[in-house]
Amino acid sequence: MTAVFPGLDPASHRPHALHDQERMWPETNCYADLWIEVVAALGLPPEAMFGFTLTQDFEGDQMTFFKVPLEDLESLYGIRCTELAIFDRLEGHVAEQIRRGRLCLVEMDSFYMPDTHATGYRKEHGKTTVGINRLDVENRVMDYFHNAGFFRVEGEDFDGLFQLHLEETDPPFLPYTEFARLPNVKPSEEAIRREARRLLARHFSRRPAANPIRAFAAEFPRQVEAVAERPFGFFHKYAFNTLRQLGANFELASSHLNWLDASSFGDAAAQAARISEVAKSVQFQLARAVTRKKFDPLASALDPAAEAWDELMGALSSRIG
Q1: Rounded to two decimals, what is the model's pTM?
Q2: Which residue of 109, 127, 136, 317 pairs with 141 in a disulfide if CB–CB is 3.0 to 4.6 A?
Q3: Alpha-carbon distance 6 to 143, whole Å?
Q4: 105, 178 in Cβ contact below 8 A?
């Protein structure tokens, strides 16, 4: 088998510190988590890429599902990522790119992914993005980045992910796939820090015009009443796309600001961390409200996070302008 990162082994892989279990949100979302581990595997600092978290907004039914802009990956690290056309067998396309030293990011079905045993594995079909490091079609084995870790899948699960269980006459599903050209020459940390500062100012200028947490708070009790009428499993989907995306986004923002310059951005980093803490606390309140069907306490639950957002943007305004 060829591999993009030949030295990596799922059995001995240690997640990056941004995925430490002591963090408030050890996992964020599949796309952001994947890039943390890939950038770390390159020996580069993933903390540098989270200036874009300042642009998170409330989208009416969810918080923005935050994803690292591809142009940021290129300007920070020299990683060039674009769509890979899938017109033949998926595994053939992936194998060709791995042979060229490129990492493929593929949307796959978590139903066949054992690392999701606590959520979707063999329970429900769900879309999630993985980064394929190693592929052995003959022996039906794949090593891949997913969420906060690096894993191996084989046998029947491999068949399911690559639709090898289909009959010849069954139409296959062709998933959305990206491939990343990794840099031949890695940038210096000084160059990365300089670019990260530039990107922070750019993303600060693109921040929401109005406080997105206050907008979310205005809808939150009504949304939770509707969630409470659904089967309890729906609670997890709602919480993931609202409070978890909010909290994880701003915990990464805090880590980014502290990495960039704790002396200059310490106050802003503390406010970002405060947003994350409140989101975590409110997630527990949400579970109680859904169980007891008492929603009044939620009306003001997000107020401290909304105030922290104002403080965060004010602190950054004084530093960035």
Answers
A1: 0.94
A2: 136
A3: 11
A4: yes
